[in-house]
Amino acid sequence: MKGNLFLLEIFIIFGFNYPTNAGQLTYGNKAISANRLLDLSNSSLSSFKDILNHFDVVFVAFTASFESWRLIKYELIQAVDNLDDYEDPPLPIVRFDCSSESINEVCLDFNVAFDPTLVLIRYGAIDAIFHQSRDAETITQWIRKHSRLISTRFWSYTDLNNAVKMIDEVTVVAIFDDNKDELVELYHEASLKVTKKPFLSGVKFFHIIKDTAEGNDWELTELGGKSGRHWKYPLIILKRPSWLMTPLEEPIVLYPINSNEDIGQWIHRKAFGTIGWATKDNTLEDVRPPKIIVYYDHNFIQQPSFSHAWRNQIILASRRHLNIYFGIANSIVFKNKLKKYGIKVPRGKDSPVFMAYDEFGSMFVMRDEFSEKALAQFIQHFTSNLIAPIVDSFDAPIKQGLEVSPLTREITGNTFHKFVSGNSKDVLIRFTDPKCRYSSEFELYWNELAHELSGESTLELVTLDGSVNTIPSQFEVKQFPTVYLIPSKTKEKIKYRGRKSLHELIQFVAKHVNSELMSFNRDGSRRLQLIEKKLKTEF
């Protein structure tokens, strides 16, 4: 963390000289740490902002009278002592006196309205205002809570390179021209979000500011830096660990600055390579289907050759089938899931289990031994709805449909993919339980709805008995009956949240179907020509 912490103005104003030991300043012969209480009252607005720009986070006490300063001074000094172990990154506490008319432009610029005003300044702007009890303990706890940064700031390219070299985990490094770059805040927000996810909690974050950095960026040899290479800032670099490296993937990737992609999402997507990595905390359920998860007993530390051999096969498969998302999962971690569906759990160097998931969460397993041809055939059958999912399924009923209308169809777990997933029509599905009182009460409205929509050629009504058939995981069914509409093109799952009312059911269907109903307008009103036709028939 060596380097010039302050601009020339600080040296002129205070006579500070930067010492040889990192994180400290000297005033005369007295050494003070970088998070000591500093009085910057004589600074102009421009120099004050330049000083703040050299820190990620600063706690500032704006005072306008001697009395307010007297009451708060020793509490701040005690808070400084409490923060002695909080130096990475260094967090200074600053006092600024607003009583002088000649320098009150600083207080006006920061909208200081109370005496005293205690604020946390992040990247040169007020981030939070302190409104609690002004005792040292409360101030200390508040600062620690609000100033938390996941990313470690470095002041030397050499120190940063050495830190990256020592870590063999996913590492993210950001380089900025100065703290004013709008990407700085987005980067720190992303680091907080990413590390809250257990799956990504081990990711290391480092950053350096070019304006205050010692040395040259070509010293970052661990990140691909070399003499003569000139990077354009801002720059965010992700480095994958050595145990994950393969000739099929680049070990270092750069964040596309102009893409506007969320930095946290980009890290999540790129951290462990070009294919997904399922864990208990990252089940990949949020990944848009169709997808194939490959379960095998991988261990990239103890069995690197075996683990990489299969992972490389899957990477190559993902490049041949670009419309499918591929991921890997440890079969031992997910053994209960595999056992639940009667699948033998791969152990040691057993061949993997390939399991496909459609947009409704239904699972399909590849039964043949792996080969490029077998996988291609499995994917073709899966995407064409030619294979049945792994589900609990009650025998299909002998009679299809209700007596009132041929439009309705009773389906099972095994036929769900045929009549819902692979249906070219809009589908209205009812999850029910024949023994449930509420399902029985809803039966009348369902039959009336089927009768009203019996002439619709682009819509199909289906019923699934949720008490004996597996309900696909993408449907939220907390009680019976539950009704969803699935438009034919988007396959979006739209839940009905209205009352037991024929009119509201028709409104819901008419509004959300992909193909407009012949009998009803989008608002649920009956089409005029049908009303006229009915009147002519009656008279």
From TrEMBL:
* Enzyme Commission number, as recorded: 5.3.4.1
What UniProt keywords apply to this chain's record, in alphabetical order?
Answer: Endoplasmic reticulum, Isomerase, Redox-active center, Signal
Among PANTHER family, the record links this protein to: PROTEIN DISULFIDE ISOMERASE (PTHR18929), PROTEIN DISULFIDE-ISOMERASE A3 (PTHR18929:SF132)
| Family per similarity comment | Belongs to the protein disulfide isomerase family.
User: Which residue ranges run through the membrane?
Assistant: none
Q: Which PROSITE patterns match?
A: THIOREDOXIN_2
GO biological process terms held by the UniProt record: protein folding; response to endoplasmic reticulum stress
Has keyword Signal?
Answer: yes
Record-annotated Thioredoxin domain positions: 385-514
- Per its record, how is this protein called by name? protein disulfide-isomerase
Molecular-function annotations in GO: protein disulfide isomerase activity
The subcellular location is: Endoplasmic reticulum lumen
Note whether Isomerase occurs among the keywords: yes
Q: Which reaction does it catalyse?
A: Catalyzes the rearrangement of -S-S- bonds in proteins
Q: Sorted alphabetically, which CDD domains does this protein's record hold?
A: PDI_a_family
Q: Where is the signal peptide?
A: 1-22
Q: Name one Pfam family in it.
A: Thioredoxin
